[in-house]
Amino acid sequence: QVQLVESGGASVQAGGSLRLSCAASGYTSTSYCMAWFRQAPGKEREWVARIFTTDGSTYYADSVRGRFTISQDNAKNTLYLQTNSLKPEDTAMYYCAASGSADVCGDNYWGQGTQVTVSS
User: Fold this and answer.
1) Per-residue pLDDT tens for 54-98?
2) Backbone angles phi, psi at 75, to 5 degrees
């Protein structure tokens, strides 16, 4: 069983930064991979970044590569998304997801989301 709770979303000006957090229970023992997604009103959910918990390898969508960084703190059972150089098009509800398996990657569990709004 995995429970996820996102936090850190806010309203910021273009060019600003936010650090999103995802508190995960069972993070180190049950989730082979975790990810961040986002969804803007009227648009489809978009994959943003993924991390494999065993070795820390990361992958990014072209739209955020070089600006966003996904990371994990196993001691705190927390996933992070550092978002820099934010653009208005980054405005969305941001969700974290986790695999329900220790050896298979998937997006089986989801948090409720945290809102990021980038103005002008």
Assistant:
1) 899 999 999 999 999 999 998 888 999 999 999 999 999 999 999
2) -65, -30
Strands 92-98 and 109-110: antiparallel
For residues 94 and 28, give the distance between their C-alpha atoms in angstroms, rounded to a whole number. 22
Q: Which helix (H) or strand (E) holds 114?
A: strand 114-119
For residue 53, give both structure tokens: 């918990």
CA distance 98 to 61: 17
Instruction: Answer yes or no: are the C-beta atoms of 90 and 70 closer than 8 Å.
Output: no
Question: How many whole angstroms separate alpha carbon 36 and alpha carbon 47?
Answer: 7
CA distance 5 to 43: 23
